[in-house]
Amino acid sequence: MRGFWPIFKRELFALFVTPLAWVLITAFLFFQGWHFYIIVVNFAAASGEALGDTGPVQAFFGQTMLLYLPLLVICPMLTMRLFAEERRSGTIETLLTAPVGAPAVVLAKYAATLATYAAMWLPTLLYIVIIARTGEVDWRVVGTSYLSVIAIGAGYLAIGTMTSALTNSQLTAAVLSAIGLCLLFLFGLGEFVFPDGPVREVATHVSAWTQMNDASRGLVDSRRLVYDATVVLVPLFITVRAVEAWRWG
């Protein structure tokens, strides 16, 4: 793993020295702030009653589509330039001739986008602080919700990293990644459509909606964490093999 930290710092700097990361973070926080505001207003309008049978924190993380829509856009945009831009500009040749292994290159680039993704969610802790100042907060729910949203995002970013390695066009990488994520997300929603049987069971298992609903109630299913880890490891393995193929021509 020699060379991991220099590449990690280089990628993190490249993300934040350009407007891309700042625009994405600003748009993400604006959208989620609006999302949080809608929930709080509706909760207050219900005279303190919970939305459904839960509180505003649970509703924010587990009961609206507004949590997922930004992820299907932001994750592809964060990862689209990782390899595609280097291949287009030719700088990938310099990187591949350096004494750095392909796993270190892939993991460093991926870790930089994951750190940026986590940084996007960090300011949303202020929403929890606001709720805590006006009522009770179940911190177990907060912990499981953030764990799940990071785990889901980690898988989405891994898929985006893979698509960036399979093309030399940032736009193509972003589109392919977005299509793949949307199909995966929609298949998970098939748990509400498919009849009882193996297909529905698989859809339920991969459903981000169900995972976040469970997390918003303080529940973490180890089988889902194994699935999340698989969604991370398989695309990254394919990416490593792609990078090794470039190195050996």
Characterise the protein shown here.
The chain has helices spanning 4-17, 19-45, 56-62, 69-79, 84-89, 91-97, 102-121, 125-134, 139-165, 170-189, 198-206, 208-215, 222-247. With 249 residues, the chain is an all-alpha fold. It has one domain. The longest helix has 27 residues, at 19-45.
Put the structure in a nutshell:
The protein is mostly helical. It contains 13 helices and no strands. 77% of the residues lie in helices and 0% in strands.
State the distance separating the first and last CA atoms. Answer: 22 Å
Helix fraction by DSSP (H/I, runs of at least 4): over 70%
Tertiary shape: globular
Structural domains: how many:
1
Overall mean pLDDT score?
87
Note the topology.
Layout: H1 4-17, H2 19-45, H3 56-62, H4 69-79, H5 84-89, H6 91-97, H7 102-121, H8 125-134, H9 139-165, H10 170-189, H11 198-206, H12 208-215, H13 222-247
Helix pairs in contact: 1-7, 2-4, 2-7, 3-9, 4-9, 4-10, 7-9, 7-13, 9-10, 9-12, 9-13, 10-11
